[in-house]
Structure formats: structure tokens, C-alpha cells
Write a structure and sequence with these properties.
7 helices; 26 strands
Length: 420
């Protein structure tokens, strides 16, 4: 189609003019039409409206012509749904495109900044886009390349929680593009991250395998799957103690296997944490509970050779303010514990209630009548305050209550609120 453009030719005259390279200054209207005609990008659904751009075309003798195009992009609306980014027609952004003309127009460099997005691309033969840097506020800061083989991310950081909030959860990629990812860091929440994260998937069906170092310490592997508003992630570790220690859940631990499953449905996040054959050496909340129950032998065991947990099982939810433990159980030969409650995400204050069952290997004979992690004989307790120095209240009379009637000493556990 026709492309509106204004041109001005500038050149020297006479012998002195031979030292002045001719050039053309001009003004052109950037729109979806010109972007498609010049092969500068995907075009459709990314752009609407138009914006004035100024360009200079240098015409040196015996060399390829070189051009520079700049614009503030006023009047052009740009949408990049894959980044959750949009610039409306009235806002401004700085665009600069450098290139040269030989047998055809070739783009060498593109930079753009505005509305929280920074793009710095180097372009090879119009076929490969080297991402020197791509920054989207507190969502991502990456480098990589785009070619006919797909998108390759070679380094940088991505905050997956912020990314999921920014993009349209109802949207679906219109392209089937292979994506290969190697990140220095993948932020999971404000507190948790995976270093040396790597994975690969196809853009229109986001599922695959990954590996990395949880909190930069514990090697983990896992799988992920995302479809519209729903996503599911599973993390596996062969050193549950190191994982939980890195996460700040326990002070010191070792050995054991771990499986963490997290499901996201719209804004709701629920999960389940399972461990087997875990050794705990330091957990202030448990130490405080053992002191309150005057079980000195178990406390010395934990601080010495470690307290062995055959299995732990935690069902939890996350909201803006709290980790909500719907139900959790921990048991080994020496003890069994069940609990539920809350942990404040900002103040790091806990409020738990539960049952402690001593000598679980024997006491568990009657556990068919109780919650998982509880024996026939158990002590009801409340645990609250600072996780590093919690307060404990034990009800000594609860030990006289048969396990099947123990609920009378409990407040109602946290409930899952379902949309009607």
C-alpha cells in the first residue's frame, strides 16, 4: 500500500561539496501498514493508530546507505500481551531504529523505552534479534535472542508471581513458538527463588520440566503446567532438610525427600508439602513444645543426632497476608504431631493449635480413630508468636481424653472458602 512520507534532499555542490556526503531527511508515519510492509515485526493485533517518525538517510560514496529513525510514538497504541504491556495512544515512548540499505533494507539496532518497558535489540541480517536487554519494571530483566528457531532466554531474572499478575490470564498465545530458558534467577514469591533456572516449552501450551537451585543452595527438579487461569507446579528435592532450611521453615535439617505441589486458580493459591525420612536438628517451635511437655530426651536427641520424621504432610493456602495451614501432620518413631493455623507473611507471627503424641511408634496403634499424626494418647497445645521464640500453652487434661473425642479441645480449623 501507499506510505505517506515527506523528504528533503541535502547535498554539497562543487569541489567543496565532494567532501559532504549527501543525505535525506524526512518524516514518515508509523502505522501497522508500514510495520507490515517493511517486515519490522508481527504487526497484527500489536498496533493501532499512527505516529510521526523522523529519519535521516546518509548516502556516503562507495558505502551502504545508513539510516536512523526516531519517534516519541504519540498516537500509536502498542500491545504486547506476552509481556502484559500496553502503551496507549496519548502516552509517549522513545523509539530509535538504526540500519543500512544494500540490496535491501537491513535493521541493525532497535531501542525503545517508556511506560515501564525498556528494549535494546541488536539485529543480524533481519533474521535474528539479539536481546541485549529487555526490562519490564519488577517483572523481568533478561537477555537472549529471537530467531526462526524460537525464543532463547540466556540470562537475567524473572519474577513469576508479578508476571502472572501482569498478563491476561484469559489470553492465549497466537503463536506456537519454542522457548528455551536459562535464567540467573526465577523469583517465585517475594521471599523464595530458584537460581540457575532452566526449562523449555512451547508458547501455546505452557508445560514442561525444569531444574535449578532453590534459594541458590538445594538442587531441585520439577514440572509445570499452565492453562488459562489455572497453573500447577511440582517441585522435587532429594534433600528435604536443605530445602526446608533454605526456605527458613526449619533452622537446621538434613536428608529426606520432598515433594511440593502448588496449584493456582485465578488468584487462589493452594499447595501440599510432603517429606519422607527427614532429620531435624533445630526447630525452635518444636524445641519450645518439647520443653513445655518436659520431654527432655527428645529435645536432646533433636539437638544431637537429630529427630527423625518418617513422614510430614502439610496442606496450605496463600492469601495476600497469610500462609494458612489447613491441616498438617508430622510423625516418626518418637513422636507424632498434628496442627493447623496461620503464619503472617509480613510480621512472621504464627498462631497454631495441635496435638502432640509421644512415642508415636507405640501410641499410633489407636491412630485409626484420630487425625493423621496423632496417637491414641496426646496433648492439645497452642503455639503462637515469633517462630524463633514462640509461646506455648499445653492442656495437660487433654491427655486423659480418648483421641476420638479430642476435637472438643480445638477451635475450628481454617476453612477453604469456595466461590458460590
Amino acid at each position: 500500500g501507499d506510505i505517506p512520507v515527506d523528504l528533503k534532499y541535502i547535498s554539497g555542490f562543487g569541489k567543496e561539496g565532494l567532501n559532504i556526503a549527501p543525505r535525506i531527511d524526512g518524516k514518515i508515519l508509523i502505522s501497522e501498514l508500514i510495520i507490515q510492509n517493511f517486515g519490522m515485526g508481527p504487526g497484527k493485533d500489536w498496533f493501532s493508530g499512527s505516529s510521526a517518525a523522523f529519519f535521516t538517510l546518509d548516502l556516503p560514496r562507495n558505502k551502504d546507505a545508513a539510516f536512523r529513525l526516531t519517534s516519541n510514538l504519540k498516537g500509536l497504541e502498542i500491545r504486547i500481551p506476552e509481556l502484559g504491556w500496553k502503551k496507549n495512544e496519548t502516552s509517549l515512548a522513545n523509539l530509535e531504529v538504526l540500519g543500512h540499505i544494500s540490496d535491501r533494507i537491513k535493521y541493525d539496532k532497535l531501542t525503545m523505552s517508556g511506560e515501564g518497558l525498556e528494549v535494546d535489540l541488536r539485529i543480524n541480517n533481519n533474521e535474528k534479534f539479539i536481546i541485549e536487554r529487555l526490562v519490564r519494571e519488577d517483572i523481568l530483566d533478561i537477555s537472549g535472542a529471537i530467531s526462526q528457531n524460537g525464543l532463547e532466554i540466556t540470562g537475567g531474572e524473572v519474577n513469576i508471581a508479578n508476571y502472572l499478575k501482569a498478563i491476561d490470564s484469559n489470553g492465549k498465545s497466537k503463536f506456537s513458538t519454542p522457548i528455551f530458558v536459562k535464567l540467573d534467577r526465577l523469583g517465585i514469591t517475594d521471599s523464595f527463588y530458584i537460581d540457575n533456572f532452566s526449562t523449555s516449552f512451547v508458547s501455546d501450551r505452557i508445560n514442561g520440566n525444569f531444574n535449578g537451585l532453590f534459594m541458590g543452595i538445594d538442587p531441585v527438579t520439577g514440572t509445570f503446567n499452565s492453562k488459562l487461569e489455572n497453573s500447577s507446579t511440582e517441585v522435587l528435592s532429594n534433600n528435604a532438610g536443605a530445602f526446608l532450611q533454605a526456605a527458613g521453615i526449619i533452622k537446621k535439617g538434613a536428608e529426606g525427600s520432598l515433594k511440593l505441589k502448588i496449584d493456582r486458580n485465578n488468584e487462589k493459591i493452594e499447595g501440599r508439602l510432603l517429606t519422607e525420612d527427614l532429620k531435624i536438628y533445630d526447630l525452635p517451635a518444636l524445641a519450645k513444645l518439647l520443653q513445655a511437655l518436659s520431654i527432655i530426651g527428645l529435645l536432646e536427641q533433636m539437638l544431637g543426632q537429630g529427630l527423625f520424621l518418617t513422614e510430614s504432610d502439610i496442606n496450605f493456602r496463600l492469601d495476600d497476608d497469610q500462609y494458612i495451614i489447613d491441616r498438617a501432620s508430622f510423625f516418626g518413631p518418637s513422636l507424632g504431631i498434628s496442627l493447623d493455623g496461620y503464619l503472617d507473611r509480613d510480621d512472621r507471627l504464627l498462631d497454631f493449635q495441635g496435638v502432640f503424641s509421644p512415642v508415636y511408634a507405640i501410641n499410633a496403634i489407636g491412630s485409626v480413630l484420630t487425625r493423621k499424626g496423632e496417637g491414641l494418647i496426646g496433648f492439645n497445645f497452642d503455639l503462637w508468636g515469633d517462630p524463633d521464640a514462640p509461646k506455648v500453652l499445653v492442656n495437660p487434661f487433654s491427655v486423659l481424653t480418648p483421641g476420638m473425642f479430642r476435637e472438643i479441645f480445638r477451635r475450628p480449623p481454617p476453612k477453604v472458602e469456595l466461590d458460590k
